[in-house]
Each structure stands twice: as C-alpha cells, then as structure tokens.
Design the sequence.
C-alpha cells in the first residue's frame, strides 16, 4: 500500500524513477501475418531478427529486475532463439512478458511456451470470427485453438494469459465477444487499445463520446463475466489500484502535460537503440550496446523529449487520457443510441 501511494504521488508530480521499470526489447520485426492496421512497413525499420549478441548485451545492461517485454513489430515466437531469450532474462531475475498473434509455426510451440518460464503471454485478437467484421484488424481463424491450448495447458499460479484488442469503428460487438471469449476459456485480463491512424488515416475509430459509451458497456460485460478489463484511458488493474486510477487518471502526469508512456518505460530496438516508444524508431536517446541504461534514461536528450514530446509525437493519443480528434473526424453529436448511460436517467 505504501509503495502504491508513493508511486501515485510520483506519477502525479511526474517525478520519474531512477531507472525504467518496464523495458520492451524488439527481438524481431519479422511477422507471419500481414495485418492492414500494422505500421511496421511504414516506420522505415529493417524487418529482421535481433542477434543473440545484441540481445545479451542489452539484457546485461539492465540487471535491476525490470519487467521485460520481448516483443517488437513482429511475431516473437518466430525468432529461432526466443525461448533461450526468455530463459536468459529469467535467470537474471526479470519478469518476462511477451505478445503474440497466436499463429504458431509448429505444433510443439504450445508446450514450449508452457515450459518457458515466461510470466505473461498476451494474444492480440480483435474478433472471435476471424476477419469477417474487423477486416482491418489482426485476427485469424487459425489462432483460437492455439490460444485455448495455452490457457488450458498452464498450471495454476504460473503463466498469465491476456487478450489484447484494438477498437475499430462499428465493431464494439466484436470487443464484447472477445471479452466473453476470454472469460469463457479462462484468460486473466482483456486489454483494449485505441486504433492508431498515423500512417493509415483511412482507418476509422469511434469518437471520444462513442468510445466512453463502449467502455461502459465493455466494463459491464467484463464484470458480469468475472474478468479484468484494462483500458488505459478509463481503468486498469484491480482493487484499490483500479479505484485510485479511475479517480486520478485525469490528473496523472500533470493532466496530460506528459505522455503516460514516458514515466517508467523504454523501448530498445534490435540495434540496441533506446527510444521512448515503439512508434519512434528515429527518436534515439542512446544505445545500450555502448551506453549504460542509467545514463540514457536520465540524459538531457531524454529529459528534453519528455518535456516537449508533442514536438515529435504530434497528435498521437494512444497513451494519453483524452482523445484527440483528427481533422477528418465529424464534429456532429453522437446518435441517441450512443448516449452516455451515466447521463441518462
């Protein structure tokens, strides 16, 4: 409780910790899916695996029990050394998370995941009926059997399993179905994210009022199913943490002056470059093949980015509370069917 209070105060003041608590390592940019919403081919990055030498050098620069996510702009389970990478992190006391599309390349993959020692695996699905309705999303009819096998095969108290969905316009029923599906097969959490249209301006997402209405409906579905719903802009975690987050989220990081992503997180590319976000491959704050993490995390360049992130990020609203409408979004009121139920008696 004391640690939670201290972290909350630090977040409200934007007093960043001495080191990042979350480090995402881009172990590969290759993928066995080609989802219309994916931006990896627009970022100017090389679609290649991270070398073992680069990986061990980066991990050896950490060493303070960070939460490590082994995922880049590709499918991590196609990296030929992914399970060695998980083991290397676990041997050094790190918590390991990994995000997958669930399209495994060989039948033995389920067993290897279950025996890997990973702490959490997140599967990205936007629908439970393939691409029939969420045509721009990352969903395949081939993944559900794999996801269910991982959930059912884990031992109690071991691997955590999450589902991650991206919300597209007119696809809220798909989200509700994903929540019900996750609860039915025994997942722990459903995470929902906004659709990023930086390189795909033709993609359509709900406006801010519609989004809030969909969250309220999704939250009700999740509570009725008994599964945790994490949605950065509305609510995360459980218990007291969830209560305080919902109470204070508007004021976190000085009411949007700072991006929520920049507080205790760093992204490391396959070349060892430290960036503030997976969407910013050219915003290089330093390189862990040559520099220490402490030096990079607190250097002048990183501090300047935090103070002036809008100069680089523009109108990105993926990790801020309030939605920033694009110039192409209509300004007309939402239909009556999408009225906020908290405002309707």
Sequence:
């Amino acid at each position: 409780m004391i640690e939670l209070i201290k972290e909350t105060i630090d977040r409200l003041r934007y007093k960043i910790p001495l080191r990042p608590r979350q480090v995402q390592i881009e172990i590969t940019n290759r993928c066995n899916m080609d989802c219309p919403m994916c931006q990896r081919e627009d970022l100017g990055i090389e679609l290649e695996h991270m070398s073992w030498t680069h990986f061990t050098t980066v991990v050896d620069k950490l060493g303070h029990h960070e939460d490590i996510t082994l995922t880049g702009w590709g499918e991590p389970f196609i990296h030929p050394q992914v399970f060695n990478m998980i083991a290397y992190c676990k041997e050094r006391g790190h918590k390991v998370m990994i995000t997958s599309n669930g399209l495994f390349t060989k039948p033995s993959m389920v067993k290897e995941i279950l025996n890997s020692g990973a702490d959490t695996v997140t599967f990205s699905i936007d629908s439970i009926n393939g691409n029939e309705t969420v045509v721009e999303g990352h969903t395949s009819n081939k993944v559900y059997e794999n996801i269910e096998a991982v959930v059912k095969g884990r031992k109690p108290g071991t691997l955590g399993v999450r589902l991650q969905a991206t919300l597209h316009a007119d696809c809220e029923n798909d989200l509700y179905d994903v929540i019900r599906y996750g609860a039915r097969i025994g997942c722990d959490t459903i995470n929902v994210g906004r659709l990023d249209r930086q390189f795909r301006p033709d993609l359509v997402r709900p406006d801010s009022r519609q989004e809030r209405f969909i969250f309220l409906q999704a939250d009700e579905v999740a509570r009725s199913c008994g599964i945790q719903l994490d949605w950065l802009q509305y609510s995360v975690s459980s218990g007291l943490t969830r209560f305080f987050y919902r109470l204070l989220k508007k004021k976190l990081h000085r009411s949007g002056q700072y991006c929520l992503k920049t507080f205790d997180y760093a992204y490391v590319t396959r070349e060892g470059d430290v960036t503030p976000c997976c969407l910013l491959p050219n915003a290089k704050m330093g390189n862990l093949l040559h520099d220490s993490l402490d030096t990079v995390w607190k250097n002048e360049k990183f501090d300047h980015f935090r103070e002036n992130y809008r100069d680089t990020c523009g109108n990105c609203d993926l990790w801020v509370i309030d939605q920033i409408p694009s110039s192409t979004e209509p300004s007309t009121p939402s239909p009556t069917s999408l009225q906020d139920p908290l405002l309707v008696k």
User: Anything to note?
Assistant: Residues 208-225 form the longest helix (18 residues). The CA atoms of residues 102 and 144 lie 8 Å apart. The two ends are 37 Å apart (CA to CA). Residues 330-345 have pLDDT under 50 and may be disordered.
